[in-house]
Amino acid sequence: MEKILTCIHKRPDALCRLICFPWAGGGSYPLAYWGKLLGDSIEVFCVRFPGRETRLNDAFAKDMTSMVNEITTVLFKELKDIPFAFFGHSFGSYVSFAVALHLKEKHGLEPVHLFLSGAHSLTSQAFLDFKNISLSNVKDEEILTHIQILGGTPSEFLLNEDLKKRLMLTLKEDLRVLQTFSFEKAETDIPFSCDITCFNGSEDKICDVQEWQKLTSGDTSSYELPGGHFYLLEPSNESFLTKHITRCIENAGL
């Protein structure tokens, strides 16, 4: 379990667990650190994707199905007896959504709240266009430029050739996984009943956020915070997120 889920601030008496899913190419620490910032009733875990950190020697996931199966196998054991919520940013939003779907369909488990950050809706043209990109034809220079534009990556990673190559490889592999994810909502099918909240940076070009809100019969809301794609790393935005998430979970009637 500890290989795939990390918790740096344990709260064994917590009433709810928040499971965080990091962005493409990212590690677990920035979101696992939220365990010190959220309310005492919430214990924070962060998913550690293969190919990084303590899983550096593990093979990258081949597709979304294999990634979801691995994560849900661990999560089911941890969440079957305690309420839980999900937070995902960018790539992590899609993985969290896919894991939530799997838990609901296979085990009848559903998060009390789904927090999605920095993610196009699954039906948006931007997401569909991304799925058609041939990543094998994308040059490393283009990926590096994109990383620099988005921000969020420590400069020392980009100045160190070995770290830079590893980052770009990890990012590519995560994006390959994302390209294998497909979701088609039936006309009458609303997959969730939990509340959904969407967060985005004001300077980020996120498309059709409102479409996420059609996937639940619960309450929905969205917030735009100052900044770009990695707005959540700004201390003031991080403070807003952690306080708002704490309030949402504590008001869920656990």
Automatic annotation (TrEMBL):
Give start and end of each Thioesterase domain. 17-245
Record's superkingdom?
A: Eukaryota
Alphabetically ordered keywords of this record: Fatty acid biosynthesis, Fatty acid metabolism, Hydrolase, Lipid biosynthesis, Lipid metabolism
BP GO annotations: medium-chain fatty acid biosynthetic process
Q: Name one GO molecular function term.
A: fatty acyl-[ACP] hydrolase activity
Reactions the enzyme catalyzes = (9Z)-octadecenoyl-[ACP] + H2O = (9Z)-octadecenoate + holo-[ACP] + H(+)
One Pfam family linked to the record: Thioesterase
What are its E.C. numbers?
3.1.2.14
**Protein family per UniProt:** Belongs to the thioesterase family.
Protein's name according to its UniProt entry: S-acyl fatty acid synthase thioesterase, medium chain
The organism of origin for this protein: Orthonyx spaldingii (Chowchilla)
